[in-house]
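TICKET: design request
STATUS: open
ATTACHED STRUCTURE:
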């Protein structure tokens, strides 16, 4: 009986050990919202656009998901794509187009045709 109990206990401990070895979560995964655009702070951008800061922040939202899956919401419309990060370089692929930006300390910065956009991770 002791031997059987010891084998069962060892098996349970082994399973618990293997379950804990899933690897660390990617720190870039999460939801990011607009925090600035075209060189303006979110407050300035919202004022120029005639909306509240919350409305402006919700206007552009990006979710970086596990396994490189991307969900991008712009003005109420959501599209999916792919993302990858190599150090601080962020690459976003959507509908055959590729956009490169930076990601550092929970802040994404993207520049398209000379205009920049900053998104900050929502905690």
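STATUS: resolved
RESOLUTION: sequence designed for all positions
ATTACHED SEQUENCE:
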């Amino acid at each position: 009986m002791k031997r059987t109990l010891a084998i069962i206990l060892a098996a349970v401990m082994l399973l618990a050990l293997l379950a804990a070895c899933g690897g660390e979560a990617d720190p870039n995964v999460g939801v990011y919202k607009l925090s600035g655009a075209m060189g303006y702070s979110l407050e300035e951008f919202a004022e120029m656009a005639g909306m509240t800061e919350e409305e402006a922040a919700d206007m552009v939202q990006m979710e970086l998901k596990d396994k490189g899956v991307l969900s991008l919401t712009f003005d109420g419309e959501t599209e999916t794509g792919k993302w990858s990060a190599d150090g601080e370089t962020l690459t976003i692929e959507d509908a055959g187009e590729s956009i490169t930006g930076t990601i550092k300390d929970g802040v994404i910065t993207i520049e398209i045709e000379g205009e920049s956009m900053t998104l900050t991770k929502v905690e």
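CLOSING REMARK: Residues 25-121 form a domain with the Lipocalin fold (CATH 2.40.128.270). The helical segments are 2-19, 42-49, 53-59.
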